[in-house]
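WARN retry 2 of 3 for item q-0093 after timeout on previous attempt; input resubmitted unchanged.
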Amino acid sequence: MGIGRFVAGVTVAAGVGLATYLALTQQDPLTWGRQVKRQATHTAQQLDNVKTAQDRVASDAQKLAQAIEDGTQTLNTIQTQIDKFQFKVAPRVAKIEETLDHLEQSQF
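OK item q-0093 returned
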């Protein structure tokens, strides 16, 4: 019985408070109710928008992480190919440098 009285008292107090607010602001209860409904709908839509944006950010972050991983693998492959190329052309480059040194010495 104590809880029932408490709930009834809170309900009456909320009703009196609402009635006082509506009287002081000179608002129609139906108009106020519609406005509250619009605000609640708008807030719910904004929360849905935030959730959607959060999901997009998480998805985009995952895509970015995958792209970075793929890019790293590609760069490693390119570096490996460059190292192989340098190893293959190193004797030829040495021979070209030796020939250039010989030509420079013969001119002076």
